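ENTRY TYPE: protein
CONTENTS: sequence, structure tokens:
***
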Amino acid sequence: MIKNTTSQRVQYTVDIRVEGPGGFDTTVHLRTDVVGVYPGGTWPEELTAVDHAKPVPQHPKVTITRVERRPMFKE
């Protein structure tokens, strides 16, 4: 879940890397650019990580590799 702790409506871009045994390795991306996240608001999200060549790990290592936050409107 993304929580906007700023006083402005914000767009987020987030990259999440998922790794596991047997070579499972993929990155999923999340963008909130349609409506953004209002001040104090949250953006619930459920992502599915897929590596078609490897089995899904039971206990994956999940790393947030990038977070960008951009105000939607300049005041």
